[in-house]
Design brief:
12 helices, 18% strand, ten-stranded mixed beta sheet, alpha/beta, three-stranded antiparallel beta sheet, globular
C-alpha cells in the first residue's frame, strides 16, 4: 500500500551500492567523526536520505547548495535471513559497515550531523524479530554506539504497525533508549489519513501512552491516501492534533509541540502531486502552529527527472515535477530556522575543452542532466556517468567523482 521507499537494490546487489557510497568519502575504518553540536531543530528538520540506494546524491553538495545541516539516514532493519542484529536495508551489517560511516564522516566534516531511521515500508523490522523491548533496544543501541548518534527516528508503518507485539517492542525499545541515552532526540513516524491517522496509528499512540513514553514528536505522513494538495495535508494535521489531545490529555498547543509532518516531494506512489507551493503552505502551517517537526521523503528524489514529468511515473531518484535541484530540501532548512543560499555556490570555472580527438559521443554540457550509464566526450576523452549529475565537470573530483574516464577517444 505504501511503497514510498523504492528499494531498487536486492541484497545481492548491495555490494554495488557500497561501492557507490565511495562518493561520500568511504574510509578504511568503521569509526565515524565526532558529531557536530546541533540544536534539536536541525534533527526535527532532517529530510530522509538513503545512503546506499536510490542513486544517493553527494550530501556535501546538498549542504553547500541548501545550507542543510542534518540528514535522516534510512533504514535500519533486521537481517533478511532473520535475527536480532541491525543491518542497513536488511543486507549490510551495521557492525562491519564502513560505507555509511563514510557518508556520516562527510556530513560531520562539514559541520552537520545525522539521525538514523529504523523501520520504514518493507523488509523485516527488528521489533518483529527481537522478541522483547529489551532485546530490540539492545540492537538499536549498537547503531547508536557505532555512529555516536544523538538522534533516531522510529518509522512505524505497514506492515509492522499491524503487529501488536512488534509495536510493543518498538515503543518499549524507544523508551529504553531515551532513558539510557540522555538528551537523545527521538521521533516516531507513522501513516497519515484524512482523519489524522488510522486505527493502527491510534493503537500505536495508545501503546506509547500505556508505556509512559513521550518522544520529541509523533509525525504523520499525509500522502498516498487521497491527499492531492496542501489543504488536504493541513486538514489531516489538524485532525491528528485532536487525536494527540484526546490520547494524552494535552492542550492543542502542547499537542502541536509534539506533532510532526513527513511529506513526499513531487509525485507520490499513488499519483498525488505535491509542488513547491504545497510545501510552503504546509511549512507556514507548521511554523504558525508551533509544530515540532517538518521533514520529507526524500533528498534522493529532490531533483528533476528527465523528462521532468518522468512520463507520469513515480521514481525513487527524482521528483517527477519541474524543479531545480534540492528545491524541497530548502523548506527543511527554513523550518530549522536557517536561510538557504539565494544562489548556488560559485562553480569551478569550466575550462575550454581541447583536443576533441575523434569522439563520437555528444560533448559534455554544464546544463544537461545525466543519469547512470550516459556517456559524454570532454577534453578528448570519453566519460560515463556513475549516477545522476548536473554541472559536474568530468575529471575534477578524482576517483570518487561521478564521471568514469573511459580513456581517449
Amino acid at each position: 500500500m505504501r511503497t514510498r521507499r523504492f528499494r531498487s537494490l536486492a541484497a545481492a546487489g548491495l555490494a554495488a551500492a557500497l561501492a557507490v557510497a565511495g562518493l561520500a568519502g568511504v574510509v578504511a575504518t568503521s569509526q565515524t567523526a565526532t558529531a557536530a553540536t546541533l540544536s534539536s531543530n536541525w534533527y526535527a528538520a532532517a529530510p530522509y536520505l538513503m545512503p546506499l540506494d536510490n542513486n544517493p546524491p553527494d550530501p556535501g553538495a546538498v549542504m553547500d547548495a541548501t545550507g542543510l545541516k542534518a540528514f535522516q539516514l534510512a533504514f535500519i532493519l533486521a537481517p533478511n535471513g532473520g535475527g536480532c542484529t541491525p543491518t542497513w536495508d536488511g543486507a549490510g551489517a551495521v557492525s562491519s559497515d564502513t560505507a555509511v560511516a563514510g557518508v556520516i564522516n562527510t556530513i560531520r566534516a562539514k559541520g552537520g550531523d545525522v539521525s538514523v531511521s529504523i523501520g520504514g515500508y518493507g523488509g523485516t523490522k527488528l521489533g518483529q524479530t527481537c522478541g522483547t523491548p529489551e532485546a530490540t533496544a539492545a540492537a538499536y543501541q549498537q547503531v547508536i554506539n557505532k555512529y555516536s548518534l544523538k538522534a533516531m527516528d522510529f518509522d512505524l508503518e505497514e506492515p509492522e504497525y499491524e503487529n501488536t507485539a512488534a509495536i510493543h517492542n518498538e515503543i518499549g525499545a524507544a523508551k529504553i533508549l531515551q532513558q539510557n541515552n540522555p538528551g537523545i532526540y527521538i521521533s516516531v513516524t507513522t501513516a497519515g489519513t484524512s482523519a489524522g491517522t488510522g486505527w493502527f496509528g491510534t493503537q500505536m499512540l495508545n501503546e506509547a501512552k500505556s508505556q509512559g513514553f513521550t518522544p520529541n514528536n509523533f509525525s504523520i505522513m499525509p500522502f498516498d491516501g487521497g491527499f492531492n494538495n496542501a489543504a488536504a495535508q493541513t486538514s489531516a494535521l489538524t485532525s491528528f492534533n485532536s487525536i494527540l489531545q484526546s490520547t494524552f490529555g494535552w492542550s492543542a498547543a502542547t499537542a502541536y509541540a509534539h506533532e510532526g509532518f513527513s511529506g513526499m516531494n513531487g509525485r507520490s506512489d499513488t499519483g498525488e502531486y505535491f509542488y513547491q507551493a504545497d510545501f510552503q503552505t504546509v511549512l507556514d502551517y507548521a511554523t504558525s502552529h508551533g509544530m515540532a517537526r517538518f521533514t520529507f521523503w526524500s533528498v534522493n528524489r529532490d531533483r528533476q527527472c528527465s523528462p521532468p514529468d518522468n512520463n507520469g511515473t513515480t521514481s525513487g531518484t527524482c521528483s517527477s515535477v519541474t524543479q531545480s535541484a534540492y528545491d524541497f530540501t530548502k523548506y527543511s532548512v527554513k523550518f530549522a530556522g536557517a536561510t538557504p543560499p539565494t544562489s548556488t555556490p560559485t562553480a569551478t570555472p569550466t575550462p575550454t575543452p581541447t583536443n576533441p580527438g575523434t569522439c563520437t559521443v555528444a560533448a559534455w554540457s554544464s546544463t544537461a542532466i545525466y543519469v547512470a550509464g550516459n556517456e559524454v566526450s570532454y577534453t578528448g576523452h570519453k566519460w560515463k556517468a556513475k549516477w545522476w549529475t548536473q554541472n559536474e565537470v568530468p575529471g575534477t573530483t578524482g576517483e570518487w567523482g561521478v564521471w568514469l574516464d573511459e580513456g581517449a577517444c
